[in-house]
Amino acid sequence: MIAEKDIDQFSVQCKEIFNQLGRDVIGQKEVVEYTVIAMIAGGNVLLEGVPGVGKTRLVRSLGRVFDLPFSRIQFTPDLMPADVTGTNIIVKDDKGNSTFSFQPGPVFSNIILADEINRATPKTQSALLEAMQEHKVTVMGVSRKLDEPFFVLATQNPIEQDGTYPLPEAQMDRFMFKLLVTNPNRDELRRIVGMTQITMDEVADAACNAKQLLAMRATAKEVPVADEVMDYALSLTLATQPDSECPANITKKYVRCGASPRAAQALISAAKVRALINGRYNVSYNDLDELACPVLRHRIKLTFEAVTDNLTPDDVIHGIISELKHPSTAKTAEKDSTAEPANTEDKPTKRRLFGGNKN
Q1: Is residue 32 within 8 Å of residue 14, measured between CB atoms?
Q2: What is the pTM of this model?
Q3: Rounded-to-integer distance, Cα 270 and Cα 38, Å
Q4: Does 267 have pLDDT greater than 80?
Q5: Is residue 204 within 8 Å of 261, Cβ to Cβ?
Q6: How far apart are the C-alpha atoms of 190 and 196, rounded to whole Å?
Q7: Of the candidates 134, 77, 141, 78, the residue with the CA atom closest to the CA atom of residue 107
Q8: How confident is the model at residue 340 (pLDDT cuts 50, 70, 90)?
Q9: SS3 68
Q10: Strand 98-104 relative to strand 111-115: parallel, antiparallel, unpaired?
Q11: 44: which strand partners?
C-alpha cells in the first residue's frame, strides 16, 4: 500500500523536476510532462519534430535533472550495430597472449539519446530492440544486463524528409509514447531567443537520482485502478484492432493494423503516474483519454482510404474515444451521490504539481 510519506515525497520530487526542466525548456509543457511521466513509468519515448524545436535540448536537460549517466548516439546512415551495442576486440595480456575483451558500446548507460534515430538503417535501428524491451544486450552469444533505470529517448525528423528511414514496427511498439514537438508561439520564441543570447548551455540542476526515481516508480505502481477503468483501457486497445471482438466503426474503415497488448500496459502504467502528478491517488477515465494519443498514435497503421481522406492517427484515436463514450464522473456523481468514492473520479485530492492540462 502507498504510505502518505511516499506520496508526499513523490509530490516534492515532481515539483523540483518540473522546476528545473523549466530553466532549460521554454514552452512544450505537454511534451515535458509526458516525457517525465514515461520516465517515471519506465518507458521509452520517441520525440518527433522538425529540426530546431528543442528535442535534443530536452533530452540533454533530462539527463542533468535526473542525474543519471547519459550517452548520446548520433544516428547516421553509416552507423553499424556494433557502434551501438559494443563488440569484442583482441587484446594482449602481460604474457603476450591474445584474448577477446568486450568493449561496451554507448548503450551501456542509463539514459540513451538516440539522436535522429530514423537516419540510420533499419539494421542499426534494430540493435536497440533487446535493450529497449529487456534491458540487456547480447553480443557474440553473451547477454549483459544494463543498469537500472534504463531509458531510450529518441528523436526523429518526420519520415517524409530526405535521408530518413521509417522505424521498424517492432521498434515503434517498444516506445511507450510518441510525442509530437511543435514550433513555439511568438511569446515562447521571444523567450527562447532571449535565453540563448545569454548561454546555449543547459543550466538545470539535478533534482532526482536513480534511487529516488526507482522509489517514485514503486509508488506509482501502487496506485489503484478500478475494474471499470481497467476495462476502458482494454476497450481502447481492442477498439484499434480491426480483427478484434469489438473494433470501433472508424477502425473498420480506416485502420489496417491496430495496437498491441503493450499499448494497454502503457496506458495503465502511465495513467498511474499522471494521476499522482495531478494530485490524485487513483486512475480516472480522463487519464486514459489524455494519454491515448501518445500511447496509440505510433501503434496503429492506417489504410489508404484514411490517407486519401486526410486523416491522421490522432483523428482516428479521437474517433474511437468518441465511439466508446465512457461514463463521465460528473454524471455518475449526480446519479448516485451516496455511492462509495470511485477510483474513476478525476478530482484532485492535492494541489496539482504541474501547470499543464487540466484533466
Answers
A1: no
A2: 0.86
A3: 6
A4: yes
A5: no
A6: 10
A7: 134
A8: very low
A9: coil
A10: unpaired
A11: 175
- Nearest-10 Cα torsion for 20, 24, 29, 30: -90
Distance CA 124, CA 107 (A): 13
- Joined together, the cell numbers standing for residue 169 give 514496427
The confidence score (pLDDT) of residue 183 equals 86
Q: Calculate what percentage of the chain has a pLDDT beyond 90.
A: 50
User: At residue 341, what are phi and psi to the nearest 5 degrees?
Assistant: -55, 120
* Strands 301-302, 255-257: pairing kind: antiparallel
- Residue 277: φ, ψ to 5°: -65, -35
Residue 357 DSSP symbol = -
Per-residue pLDDT reduced to its tens digit, 107-161: 999 999 999 998 888 888 888 999 999 999 988 888 999 999 999 999 988 766 6
Q: Are 331 and 4 in contact (CB under 8 A)?
A: no
pLDDT tens-digit readout, 280-322 = 888 999 999 999 999 999 999 999 999 999 999 999 999 999 9
Residue type (1 letter), 64: R
Asked if residues 127 and 81 have their Cβ atoms less than 8 Å apart, the reply is: yes
Alpha-carbon dihedral of residues 169, 175, 177, 178, nearest 10 degrees? Answer: -50
Q: Which residues pair with 73 in a beta bridge?
A: 114
